[in-house]
From TrEMBL:
The protein's name: Aspartyl/glutamyl-tRNA(Asn/Gln) amidotransferase subunit B
One annotated GO biological process: translation
Organism expressing this protein natively: Mitsuokella jalaludinii
Pfam family, one: GatB_Yqey
InterPro entries tied to this protein: Asn/Gln-tRNA_amidoTrfase_suB/E, Asn/Gln-tRNA_Trfase_suB/E_cat, Asn/Gln_amidotransferase, Asn/Gln_tRNA_amidoTrase-B-like, GatB, GatB_C_1, GatB_Yqey_C_2, Gln-tRNA_amidoTrfase_suB_CS
The protein's role, per its UniProt record: Allows the formation of correctly charged Asn-tRNA(Asn) or Gln-tRNA(Gln) through the transamidation of misacylated Asp-tRNA(Asn) or Glu-tRNA(Gln) in organisms which lack either or both of asparaginyl-tRNA or glutaminyl-tRNA synthetases. The reaction takes place in the presence of glutamine and ATP through an activated phospho-Asp-tRNA(Asn) or phospho-Glu-tRNA(Gln).
Molecular-function annotations in GO: asparaginyl-tRNA synthase (glutamine-hydrolyzing) activity; ATP binding; glutaminyl-tRNA synthase (glutamine-hydrolyzing) activity; transferase activity
Subunit structure: Heterotrimer of A, B and C subunits.
Length: 480
């Protein structure tokens, strides 16, 4: 490959506070347009903002959870630019003294671990939302402005340009999402804009250290769009360079319907924003005691939890990674295991049938109709040989729409596994007598032929015979 991609992400994480960062307006999603506004967040003359202390707490916790240094003295700044969704004509943000900086997180792509450095985490207010008449700003005849989002608190998490592929960028953003969920500072609902990324992409010849000219793609709010936008932009820039052209530093938009990026405007540099200290807000002074207090309140984070599941329960690296990918799933798993369920079986059911049903119904695990306790009880029935794994699938399907405990479902539906030796032996003998061809093939060395006989026994017992007992008994009888 001739060129190497150099990628950095600026992730905007909307915080789950009840009120906005500098006023008392509600932050709830989905309200009627321009109803969660007041003179402060609309930037009317003569108003004075005040800092939401919860935002500062969340900023410090996010910094601690991503191995950052917390600055005991930080301040807000005015980032000056004009855009219709910015009523003050400046965004109150942080520039030279952010709340946290110089952190890192580890990612895992195709079994290879890599450390991604964080430049900084800073607090800022969100802008309003442009409501386009078309699918993107480029194909819209009109755009309206909804200021409900103006002043909603954000953390901007800025990475170093350490990412080299769309896969690494996705893994990094998934890790940031998981951490923010674990420390409970954001809902991270990407479909609601709680978590979105600006992507910086440049190319350079393989083996060189100098950075190429970068482009930025704004407000990417799904993992698929993140990967698609990066892959397209890498291909586009490579074609420009191969044709002898020069990449233009600019801001581009991604059109998911066409899978392409489109030019929006020339890319600004920091000096273009004329940053200045915010005169209406005091600096944020944080003591060491406060920092340690917030550190003590942090939960077990994804990497630590993953290591624990591998060590305590013997889960594979892959299983532990999936289970800990969200706090809700990790807590659900722990709750299932707390019932006495085998950890590996618990992981298999959560990643298998449970995940499949959640995806089909379009709900997350917190809304699962099968609680962790009920799933644990069902796994317990498998462990006691009351039901087989195959019968358990029927039981689970019934549990999805039936609130009864699995024991009652098994009893009411007559699904108790047959473990009586006499009953199984009768079915085995009948299968052997009725399938001389399969018997001959098995005795002739074709060991897979036993599968047909097992199938006949299971059919005769309506799937209720213990599969291990059936296999063992058939093997013993056919060995005679």
């Amino acid at each position: 490959m001739k060129y190497e991609a150099v990628i950095g992400l600026e992730i905007h994480c909307e915080l789950k506070t009840k009120t906005k960062i500098f006023c008392g307006c509600a932050t709830g999603f989905g309200a009627e347009q321009n109803t969660h506004v007041c003179p402060v967040c609309l930037g009317l003359p003569g108003v004075l903002p005040t800092v939401n202390k919860r935002v500062v707490e969340f900023g410090i916790k996010a910094g601690l959870a991503t191995n950052c240094t917390i600055n005991k003295y930080s301040k807000f700044d005015r980032k000056n630019y004009y855009y219709p969704d910015l009523p003050k004509n400046w965004q109150t943000s942080q520039y030279d003294l952010p709340i946290a900086e110089h952190g890192w997180v580890d990612i895992d792509v195709d079994g290879e671990k890599k450390r991604i450095r964080l430049t900084r985490i800073h607090m800022e207010e969100d802008a309003g939302k442009l409501v386009h008449s078309g699918t993107t700003i480029k194909d819209s005849a009109t755009s309206n402005v909804d200021y409900n989002r103006t002043g909603v608190p954000l953390l901007e998490i800025v990475s170093e340009p350490d990412l080299r592929s769309a896969e690494e960028a996705r893994a990094y953003m998934e890790k940031i999402k998981a951490i923010m969920e674990y420390i409970d500072v954001s809902n991270c609902r990407m479909e609601e804009g709680n978590l979105r990324a600006d992507i910086n992409v440049s190319l350079r010849p393989v083996g060189t250290k100098e950075l190429g000219t970068r482009t930025e793609m704004k407000n990417i709010n799904s993992f698929k769009n993140l990967e698609d936008a990066i892959n397209y932009e890498i291909e586009r820039q490579e074609e420009v360079l191969e044709d002898g052209g020069h990449v233009v530093q600019e801001t581009r938009t991604f059109d998911p319907a066409r899978g392409i990026t489109l030019s929006m405007r020339s890319k600004e540099n920091a000096h273009d924003y004329r940053y200045m200290p915010e005169p209406d807000l005091p600096p944020i002074v944080t003591s060491e005691e406060t920092i340690e207090k917030y550190r003590s309140e942090l939960p077990e984070l994804p990497d630590a939890r993953r290591a624990r599941l591998e060590k305590e329960y013997g889960l594979s690296d892959y299983d532990a990674d999936i289970i800990t990918s969200s706090r809700a799933m990790a807590e659900y798993f722990d709750a299932v295991v707390a019932t006495g369920a085998d950890p590996k079986l618990a992981a298999n059911w959560i990643m298998g049938d449970l995940a499949k049903n959640l995806n089909e119904d379009g709900i997350d695990i917190t809304k699962s109709p099968v609680s962790a306790e009920r799933l644990g009880k069902m796994i317990g029935l498998i462990m006691k040989d009351t039901i087989s794994g195959k019968i358990a699938k029927k039981v689970f399907k019934e549990m999805w729409t039936n609130e009864d405990d699995p024991e009652k479902i098994v009893k009411d539906k007559g699904l108790v596994q047959i473990t009586d030796t006499g009953a199984i032996e009768a079915a085995v003998d009948a299968a052997i007598a009725a399938n001389p061809k399969a018997v001959a093939e098995y005795k002739g060395g074709k060991k897979k032929a036993i599968g047909a006989l097992v199938g006949q026994v299971m059919k005769a017992t309506r799937g209720k015979a213990n599969p291990q007992m059936v296999n063992k008994m058939l093997a013993e009888k056919l060995a005679d």
